[in-house]
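Q: I'm writing up a methods section and want to include an example of the input and output format. Could you take the sequence below and give the corresponding predicted structure tokens, formatted cleanly so I can copy it straight into the document?
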Amino acid sequence: MERIQQRDEVIRQLEEDVDVKEIQAIIEDAVSRSSDQMREEREQQLLEKQPQLDDLVRFADATFDTFDETVPGVRHAYQTAFRYAMRPRGWLVLVGPNGCGKTHLAVAVAKERQEANDTMMIQTVPDLLDHLRSSFSSSTYERLFDQLRTVEFLVLDDLGAHVNSPWAQEKLFQLLNYRYNRMLPTLIIANHVSVDERIASRLSDRGLVTMVVMDQAKDYRPHNVLEQEKED
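A: Here is the clean output for your methods example:
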């Protein structure tokens, strides 16, 4: 009996010396910090997965030197894009059908700006909106959206190819309006200009926006393929 009493006394003293709530708080804090760290790592991975020039394998060789300006209907676009690449002021919008060479020119401009050490992002609008929507409730959204708004040079491909929901319209307007008000260099590629009227209003500002419509351009891609086959 005496031993049992001694044991109980030892246990009681240990319990008095140890603050159970404090230990529980320490454990919960450690778990919380671990969860926060894991979430930050996942969000950083998502940000790092944003498309870069090196990811555009199809346009790995797209430069001004490799662009064939002799293809009918593309010379004006080539000359305008080249001047813009050397000194990007305002926005450049390239509009034309599939295969007219506008993405080649956009990548060529982006490479020149990268060589000039501009911070740069290149995004396909439908994919970008999907990513923003999926990350809307996390800090990834704010970080990505802030990067898009403030990056020195932004390329947006396939404007108008997205699902034109109210949410998509609002996000695009917020992004483009921010860059418009600060006159940040932005290159936009579109098959046709079919956007929210507020964005259309920004695109119609001839003091800021240079729009090149390549509707007379012949299909650039087959021409390039044939030339490469001849060289081979």
